[in-house]
Design goal:
The relative contact order is 0.15. With 103 residues, this protein is mainly α. Helix content is 72%, strand content 0%. It has helices at residues 4-17, 22-29, 33-40, 48-58, 62-69, 75-99. The chain is elongated, with a radius of gyration of 20 Å. It is built from six helices and no strands. The protein starts with a helix and ends with a helix.
């Protein structure tokens, strides 16, 4: 299942590919820039009707928006991955120090 954040990231990527600002896309859709920002940042959900309007305004299919959205990781997933990498790095550093006789 796609998250609001992933869908928003897909909208942003497609908008930027067309060199459109949030204001310009919002004007095409008849929505305020603040709502555009909330949609792209995953703070507000995109209704099906609005997703259709967005895909039309960006000249892409709904399938394309969803397919691209599925390639984006959620920030919380990335933070968890970063934490695992840092833990692994700390463990490796300890091993190096033990091997050097520094611990």
């Amino acid at each position: 299942m796609l998250t609001d954040g992933q869908i928003g990231a897909s909208i942003r990527a497609n908008r930027l590919a067309l060199n459109l600002s949030q204001t310009e896309l919002g004007a095409k859709l008849g929505i305020h820039i603040s709502k555009m920002s909330r949609l792209e940042n995953g703070i507000q959900s995109v209704s099906f009707a609005l997703a259709v309007q967005i895909s039309n305004a960006l000249d892409v299919s709904l399938h394309h928006l969803a397919q691209l959205a599925s390639t984006y990781a959620e920030p919380s997933d990335l933070l968890a991955k970063k934490a695992r990498i840092l833990e692994e790095l700390e463990s490796v550093n300890k091993e190096i120090n033990v091997a050097r006789g520094q611990l």
